[in-house]
Q: What sequence folds into this?
């Protein structure tokens, strides 16, 4: 019986060194998994951090781009406003300068449109000298003087409106304004100054005021499109070269009030056909209309007292026509 029990007894489990190491290996595996998890977590955190940093950089870059874009817009707007300020110019007074062939305008050189401030009483000397893009100007009521060379060589200026308050237009004010086609000089102006409209090549219509007393030398010289000129009663003097080289001028009417006509006043006016003249010595003594072969009609206005009894005999200016 004992032997049977002994045979049936469960043999003892042998514990090997390998078995004794299993818990340690399992623990190691768990630790490795933990390390992998930690490493993976670290990697993800690092990646997340990098992503966050990248997002921050992207956001910062986007913000910087937006700011730079805004700066560009502001600069563009400023340039646009600056350009508009230059081209749409408000004149508040001031003078330019001219020395020999050198000149400097007071206004920006590329101005195209001008508004004259209501406080202005005088357009300064050479204020718009050689503003070659200026096309038109309306000078408001209150301005009394257009200065010397004010619009000198404004070659695109085609329209000028002068106020009734204007009393003086100084010499060379519209010198070589080649596109200027007409001008109305208001009542109150007594003098058309020297060379004021010289070489205004498209000038076809000039209206002179009843207050006019004198047309200075070269005032309309080289106005090659001018076809007729009526000088108002009250004008006493026509300066030398006043209408010289007005090559298609064909009709001139001078009033009886004219007492003096300067040398070569109508030289180069080869198409003159109709003249109304005062009967004064200058016409004969200066040969003002000598060789004007195109003349078809000459009318003399009332004679001055010293010529009333003198016959028109001999070598008069008409004999050469």
A:
């Amino acid at each position: 019986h004992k032997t049977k029990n002994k045979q049936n007894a469960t043999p003892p489990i042998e514990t090997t060194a390998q078995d004794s190491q299993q818990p340690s290996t399992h623990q190691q595996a768990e630790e490795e998994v933990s390390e992998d998890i930690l490493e993976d977590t670290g990697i993800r955190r690092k990646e997340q951090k990098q992503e966050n940093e990248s997002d921050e950089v992207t956001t910062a870059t986007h913000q910087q781009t937006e700011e730079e874009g805004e700066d560009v817009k502001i600069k563009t707007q400023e340039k646009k406003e600056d350009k508009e300020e230059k081209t749409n110019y408000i004149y508040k007074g001031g003078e330019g300068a001219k020395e020999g062939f050198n000149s400097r305008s007071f206004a920006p050189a590329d101005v195209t449109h001008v508004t004259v401030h209501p406080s202005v009483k005088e357009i300064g000397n050479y204020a718009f000298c050689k503003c070659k893009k200026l096309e038109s100007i309306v000078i408001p009521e209150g301005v009394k003087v257009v200065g010397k060379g004010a619009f000198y060589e404004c070659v695109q200026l085609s329209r000028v409106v002068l106020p009734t308050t204007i009393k003086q237009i100084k010499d060379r004010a519209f010198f070589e304004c080649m596109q200027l086609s007409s001008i109305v000089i208001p009542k109150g102006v007594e003098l058309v100054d020297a060379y004021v409209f010289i070489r205004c090549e498209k000038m076809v219509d000039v209206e002179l005021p009843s207050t006019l007393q004198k047309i200075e030398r070269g005032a309309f010289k080289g106005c090659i499109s001018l076809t007729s000129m009526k000088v108002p009663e009250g004008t006493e003097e026509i300066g030398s070269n006043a209408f010289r080289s007005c090559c298609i001028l064909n009709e001139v009417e001078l009033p009886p009030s004219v007492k003096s006509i300067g040398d070569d006043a109508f030289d180069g006016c080869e198409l003159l056909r109709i003249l109304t003249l005062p009967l004064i010595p200058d016409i004969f003594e200066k040969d003002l209309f000598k060789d004007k072969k195109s003349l078809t009609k000459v009318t003399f206005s009332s004679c001055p007292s010293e010529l009333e009894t003198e016959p028109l005999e001999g070598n008069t200016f008409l004999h050469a026509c």
Notes: Residues 86-168 form one domain.
